[in-house]
Specification:
This protein is α/β, with parallel strands linked by helices and 624 residues long. It contains twelve helices and 18 strands.
């Protein structure tokens, strides 16, 4: 063991670069003797420290500080050997060792005169120091050998440390690679799990595809067998197709021939229909009795059960003597008489054939006449519900339905609607939606063919009955109405609805033009009953005047006079085309069932009878 040979006390003095022993002077004793007595006494009391210094420096390659080990004792326990510090470490101060004087006890002091004893003591000390120097030299040699061995070991350890560091770097790289491989392994495991799931799904899909393939193979075999049958049937079908084409050609010829027959049949129907209407009279009169508010009919009006064309008006009168009452009956005959229980549909059925003539190219006019409150507006316009519709919405509905049916025969129709009222002998546009202050003036102008038009009037293109009903609602909002003592909502003007019809059949090169005119006349009034004043009186005067002039025109037509005063009134001038002969005209005579209105009812029936006796000539169709 190297530590056993080192001394127990190690000096902390730094080793010098050059390993030289301190020289021992031969004349040490002489120097001691030559010194003064005081110095010798002071030096005797001092403790001489012996320090052995190594002669070699530690190698620079060592990175660690040398480890100090005690040297083996060379005979004196107080000797101290110091190992050299490593480069860069500061040297520490040496530790001094006190050597007792030889031959003299530590507590005694030689007298100044005992020079021999002092010399002997100094020689003993010198000998002791020489022995220590020898021992130190031996320890120094052993330490040099130990340092050399340690240097070898340090170099080996440094080499081993470099190898370990290199291995550590390799291990770090291996660790990083291992972590990467672990992460990759986990990712591969996840991918493997996903691929396994996809594989299972693919296997399931493959099984389903196999089953479908098997099913398709079965279907293919069935289809192949069906194809063989179909090919066989195809040959038969081709033969049948040729036969069918021959039949189709024959059918097409038949259809063309039937279309011609239908067209000629339609033309013949129109002719026969016109003949029937002419036999019934170009101007026809229907009478309609309004029911009482409580239901039923007044006792002075009688409708024979077996005759739907006769109406009897009865009145009890006192005799000249005043003793007995006599009943006087007034009998009237018309084309049709409708009682108070007749529905709107029943009334229109009698009128529908006349409306059909409008699509055949004939002008058609229908107007309602009677005293105020007799049901004229109800007859012409009706209620909002379809069951309660009057003549105007039902006529328009029939026209559009018939037009759609005629489209199958190649006809195309266009319709234009207008709504005008005659208020106090002034024309007013009921479809006008602008400001009242900007309302234009209107005039009636006649063309060469005696057709009347109104200037600055609003004309609306319509394609369905719903659009016409909307126009009727707008016209009712703009029409002049007022409350009187006879009627809560009395019409204060004559309302005229016109529907211009234009038809064309390009395949047959045919055209037809006609006008459907539907008029709701204002009711006649008596001042005693209506008690009209102010504006109402002015309106009543204008209404009664225009109705009187209408009666004059009817009388002139009935008497076949040469001059017919159409221009006396805006109403008769506007209806000249309907009353002048080139039109099929129908008049509704509406009468009130109240007994108090007997006089007005009698006048209305007499006027209707006069109209029924008129002959206005034969209407002609407007066809090209």
């Amino acid at each position: 063991m190297e530590n056993a040979d080192l001394p127990k006390a190690v000096s902390r003095l730094p080793l010098p670069m050059n390993s030289t022993k301190r020289p021992i002077l031969a004349n040490a004793s002489d120097n001691h003797e030559s010194q003064p007595a005081q110095k010798r006494q002071r030096k005797e009391s001092e403790v001489v420290a012996a320090t052995i210094v190594g002669t070699k420096r530690l190698p620079a390659a060592s990175a660690r500080p040398p480890v100090s080990k005690p040297a083996r004792s060379m005979g004196h326990p107080a000797a101290t050997v110091a190992a050299g510090p490593s480069r860069g470490v500061a040297a520490k101060r040496p530790v001094s060792a006190t050597v007792p004087k030889a031959g003299v006890s530590a507590g005694t002091k030689r007298p100044s005169w005992d020079l021999k004893g002092k010399v002997a003591d100094m020689q003993g000390k010198l000998t002791a120091y020489q022995n220590k120097v020898k021992s130190s030299d031996q320890s120094n040699e052993s330490l040099k050998a130990a340092v050399t061995e340690k240097d070898v070991i340090i170099r080996e350890q440094q080499s081993r440390l470099s190898e370990c560091e290199a291995e550590l770097k390799v291990l770090y790289r291996v660790k990083a690679d291992l972590q990467n491989m672990t992460s990759n392994n986990r990712e591969m495991e996840r991918r493997l799990l996903h691929l396994e799931q996809e594989h299972k799904a693919t296997e399931t899909l493959a099984e389903n595809l196999e089953r479908e393939l098997h099913s398709l193979k079965v279907k293919l075999s069935v289809a192949e067998s069906s194809l063989a049958c179909t090919q066989t049937n195809l040959c038969c079908t081709q033969t049948t197709l040729r036969e069918t084409e021959e039949k189709l050609t024959s059918c097409q010829e038949t259809v063309a021939r039937q279309r011609d027959e239908i067209h000629f049949g339609e033309m013949e129907r129109r002719c026969l229909h016109n003949v029937i209407q002419e036999l019934k009279g170009n101007i026809r009169v229907f009478c309609r009795v309004r029911p009482l508010l409580a239901g039923g009919m007044g006792g002075h009006i009688q409708l024979p059960a077996h005759d739907d064309k006769t109406l009897i008006l009865a009145k009890s009168e006192e005799s000249h003597t005043g003793r007995t009452d006599t009943q006087k009956n007034y009998s009237f005959s018309f084309d049709k008489v409708f009682g108070p229980h007749s529905s709107q549909q029943e009334v229109f059925e009698e009128l529908s054939l006349l409306i059909q003539s409008a699509l055949d190219g004939y002008n058609v006019c229908c107007f309602a006449y009677g005293q105020t409150g007799s049901g004229k507006t109800h007859t012409m316009e009706g209620e909002d519900s379809e069951d309660g519709w009057g003549v105007i919405p039902r006529a328009v509905q029939q026209v559009f339905k018939a037009a759609r049916k005629l489209e199958e025969q190649g006809w195309q129709f266009s319709f234009t609607a207008s709504f005008v009222e005659i208020y106090n002998e002034t024309l007013r546009d009921l479809l006008y939606t602008g400001k009242a202050s900007n309302r234009p003036e209107h005039e009636i102008r006649k063309s060469a063919d005696n057709t009347g038009t109104v200037t600055n009037l609003t004309y609306k293109k319509v394609t369905s009955e719903d659009q016409v009903i909307d126009l009727m609602a707008l016209a009712n909002q703009n029409r002049a109405t007022a409350q009187t003592s006879v009627n809560d909502r009395s019409s204060r003007s004559h309302s005229v609805f016109q529907l211009d019809i234009r038809g064309e059949n390009t395949g047959r090169d045919l055209k037809c033009n006609s006008t459907l005119c539907l008029v709701d006349l204002a009711g006649s009034e008596r001042v005693q009953k209506s008690q009209a004043q102010g504006d109402r009186f002015k309106e009543m005067t204008a209404i009664n005047g225009s109705l009187t002039k209408l009666g004059i025109v009817i009388s002139a037509l009935a008497n076949k006079e040469n001059f017919i005063p159409y221009r006396n009134s805006k109403l008769t001038y506007l209806l000249q085309g309907c009353l002048g002969g080139n039109s099929k005209t129908l008049m509704f005579a509406n009468i009130s069932p109240e007994t108090d209105n007997f006089g007005e009812t009698l006048n209305s029936l007499r006027f209707a009878s006069k109209v029924n006796c008129c002959v206005i000539g034969t209407a002609s169709a407007n066809r090209k």
